[in-house]
Each structure stands twice: as C-alpha cells, then as structure tokens.
Design a protein that fits this description.
The complex is a heterotrimer of chains A (342), B (173) and C (77).
Chain A (H helix, E strand, L loop, with lengths): L1 H8 L7 E11 L4 E14 L2 E12 L4 H6 L6 E14 L2 E12 L2 E14 L4 E14 L10 E15 L2 E14 L7 E4 L2 E4 L5 E15 L3 E12 L4 E14 L2 E12 L25 E12 L12 E11 L4 E12 L4
Antiparallel strand pairs in A: 1-2, 1-18, 2-3, 3-4, 4-5, 5-6, 6-7, 7-8, 8-9, 9-12, 10-11, 12-13, 13-14, 14-15, 15-16, 16-17, 17-18
Chain B lengths: L1 H20 L11 E2 L4 E4 L4 E3 L7 E7 L4 H17 L4 E7 L4 H10 L5 E4 L4 H5 L7 E5 L4 E7 L5 H14 L4
Parallel strand pairs in B: 4-5, 5-6
Antiparallel strand pairs in B: 1-8, 2-3, 2-6, 4-7, 7-8
Chain C lengths: L4 H18 L28 H8 L19
The chains are: A mainly beta (342), B alpha+beta (173), C mainly alpha (77).
Chain lengths: 342, 173, 77
Amino acid sequence: MTTLFALAATHTLAQNELNVQFHQFQDTRGVTVLSPTVELSQDFTDRTTLRGSFGVDAISAASDSCARCHHQGVSSQRLVGSASLTRKFGDLKWTIGGEYSRENFYRATTALTSLARDLNNGNTTIAGGFTFSLNQPTLHPLPQVEQQYASSGYAAITQTLTKTTIAQVGYELARVNGFQSNPYLRADVQGIMLVGQAPDLRTRQTLTARIRQALPADTYFEANYRHYFDSWQLRSNSIDVGLSHYLTKPVLASVVYRRYGQTGAFFFQRQYAGSPEFFTADFRLAPFASDLYTGKLVITPGAMAWLPKGSSLLVQYDRYRADNGFEAGTLTGGLRVPLKLK
Amino acid sequence: MMRTVRALLSLAAAIAAVLIVVGPDVVAAPAPTAAPAVEWRGADGAVVRLANAKGKVVLVDFWASWCPPCKESFPALDVIQRDYRARGVDVIAVNVDERRKDADAFLAAHPHQLLVVFDPRGESPKAFKVRGMPSSFVIDRRGEIRYTHQGYSQGIERTYRRELDVLIAEPVR
Amino acid sequence: MHTHALGRFLLLAAIAAVALMGAGCVTVQPWERGRLADPQMRFDENGSLTAYQAHWLEAREGSAGGSGVQGGGCGCK
C-alpha cells in the first residue's frame, strides 16, 4: 500500500524515463533477496503520463518464517507489476492505477486513485487518495487460501514556508478486514505450538510531518516524523533526519539516520497460558526499537559515450539494526535514463 | 470480491481512455494591456529596456535553469527568433536565476541567437504578474500584451507562429 | 517505547506552520523557487524511505503507511 502511494506520488516529475534498480538484501539469518526492478514513465501528451513498473524478487529464504521450516534455505520468487496514469487538468492532477504482486504463497491486487491540487501560486498543494487491496495468503503447507481486504485513504497538505523551506503534514487511515494471522509463525500456547490467531479487523492510523530545508553551499536538510497507532494498540514513532550535499554539480551524497520504536499489540506475549482468544508469535507485533543508517551517492555524469545525457547512477547502502536481534543490510545500484521521444 | 476488483479496474481503464482522448487545455486570450516599462541587464551588463523595442513585435519569455519546462521551450524560442528576425520580431528570454553561473552553464550548452537578459531580483516577472514558470507574453507594435502563455507544451511553437503572424500583419499606427 | 519529543515538536511545528501559511499569505513567487526546485526538496522523489525500503521494513515492523506524497518542487506549469 505504501508502495502504491509512493507510486502515485512520483508522477510530479513528468518526463519520459527508464529507471532500473538492482537491490540486494541480506540479513543475519542468512536470508538473501535479489530484486531487480524496471520502471518506465511515459508522457503521452503534455498532460497525460503513464507509468509502469515491473520487479522480481529472487528470495533465497523467503523470510525468517521460511527459514524456520526450511533450514537449508528455500528459493522463492516475487513478481510485482504496476501501472498508473496521471492526467493534469490545470492545477489539478488525477492519478489512477493498480498493482499486482504474486509470490509462492501470497497474492495481492490493489487499485488506487489520488487527486492533488496546487493552490496559492503553487505554494500550497493539497492531496488525497484512496486504495483498495485484496490480499490472498495461502496457508502453506495447506492449500487453503484466505482473503484479506484493505482499504485506505490519505490526505496531505504541502506548504512552501520560505524560499528555502517546505513542510508537509499528512494523515492516513486504513482498515484491514479478514485473515490477518501469520500462517507461518507458531505461538507457544501452554507449550503447544499453534498457528497464530489475530483479530480480523485492524484499523491503522498514521500522522506524518516532514520538512525540507535548503542550506547554503548546495546542502539540504530533511526531517520526517511519523506517529502510528492502530486498534490492536500497537503504537510507533519514527523519526529520521538526513543531509544531502552536492560534492560537485554532478555528484550528490546523502546520509540519513532513522530511529524507530514500537509497542507490542495488546495480545502479544512470549508465551500464552490458559486459552487465549488471540495469540501470535509474529515479531512484528512485539515491542522493539531499531536504527537505520543510509548512505547514498547519485552521480549524473553528463555526456558520456555509452550513456544518454541526463542519465544518473545511484548507489545506496542501508544498515538496519533492531534490539530484537535482527540485523540487515541492503545494497542498491540503479541507473536512470531519460528517454527522448523525438 | 474478485468481481468488485475487476469492475473497479475496468472502470478505471474506461476513465483513463476518456482522459487520454480529451485534448490539452486551451489558452485564453486576455484583454490587451500595456506591457510594463521594465529593464534588464544584458550578458555584458548593459541596460536593455523593453520600451526600446516599441514598434516591433516582441515575445518575452521568463525562464530559469532550475525549471525543466523552461529549458525545453528555450530551443523552440530560439528557432522562432531565427525565423522571424527578418520580419521585425524580437524574442527576449528573461533569465530569473538567482545565481548567474547556473544560467551561464545552461547557455553555454545551448548556442542561441535570441536575446538573453538577466533579472536575478525578479523585478520584471513581478511587473508582468507572472503566475507560473515558464510564462511568456506576446507584445504588439504598440506595446500592448496581446497573448500570454503559462507552461510549455509541444504545440506551443505553432501557436507562437500563428500569434506572431497576426501581430506582424497588423498595420503600424 | 521511545517517545520522540523532537518528533512531537516537529509535528506540531509543521501543523502550525502549514495552518498559518496556508491561510493565504503567499510568500514565495513562482520565479523565486530555485532552491525549492531541487530534487532534494521534494517529498516524493527523495522520500526518507524509498518504495523498496518501505517494502522490506513492512515485513519487519508492525506499522506501515505515511510515505511522502506529492507536493513541492519547482512549481513549474
């Protein structure tokens, strides 16, 4: 869902381009995910942009859920494709789109629509959107397929504050219905390992505040804050701050630090006694805190023999460390090539 | 539920088809108003006054190096200047970059014949009440703004030519 | 849980600023957006989390949502 909003959002840079990225994800449990993604944006007319993206995850141990049952590792694949269309009507921008993803035991179909309007000579932008998803997990090793419906809406205001400052506040409300247990993780209920049982309704709310500040000497500061809370009484705060600097005109270096902390869901326990209505062994529903460090380099080399003018290369490294023992690193390499129609 | 999703997707596709077919917005012609008396600095620092061009048809375009559609429209404007110079048309590209070197880097990479002037403090776009970048104004021989444009679209070059042809054909009074 | 006093402050400050400025005082003219036009000033392009990061974080964390949406940039027509 998050991905989808991001997809709707990127349209503002309407230009024809091809964006190829290659990600490698590796964690302390030996899970390795290699994901190439290809993304294409195409302006049809001055006011209509079509965007499509396609990605593949080659997963050598799909998650630690798989790793627990398949100690030797297991190969899996995730395919994701999406398309969206944006149309400008003066200061109004309308996007519709959809996304489909499929992996061994999970399928998701999402439709989205969003609207954004510039006001105040472009100093204020109000945006809102809605998505609906149908998610279908398979209860592997059983063949049974469960259904989960998620609908979500958001609204955001972006405001230019000065010639060098811009801020955004947003609110998102999501409602998830249906099967929401993790079919792969077993909880300890009186010493018996059982597939978790979670409430079948979850209402999730998110408040965000973001700010960007241009500093002297081609340097930019960013700060983002997110407060999340849901009807399972899970709360989280995340804050991240970053600095970007153009070392030379074609070389941009960025560093970002993110701190995250969450409480557990009301029914999360390490072990359960009696006969609880709800129980889970899902680490995502347990309290923990984490740090994420990101370093990024974007190089726009200008005219080069084998690269079209305006192409850029990206290298990014993320290091994630949570106090529940989980650590991961991701490495991303990317190439963005502008496409000329004429 | 799959049916609902499919229905939603087909609805979306139908709307998309309609949106693609509907043409681009039409630029409205405003009532003529006198162009403001503005002055700029040329590349050499010399003062350039808009009033000096009175008696000629003038196309004034406000652009900046940080504005992608402005940069797209620049070569098209230059072609128009080359084609219309002999017919007494001046194309003036007013750069509003705060840092001159940003403009110079772009200009060095784009050889041009149109007149580029500089207004880093933004006095002239204010006088012209520019509401978005890029903005252009087509001014007749009497110094009245006859056509205004905001943004860049691929068809704008043809529109400029049509408008310039109209203004050139008008008798000088 | 870690409460982020700085985060709360940022949230309140941003809401207050947006409310005040959104009330109609235009401060920045279209030709003054040179710094704002930089990709680093966009909320979508350089969102703190890219779509890829959000994807793998969602598989590790109990919360989701709230990625940056469009707004800002050069404001070009």
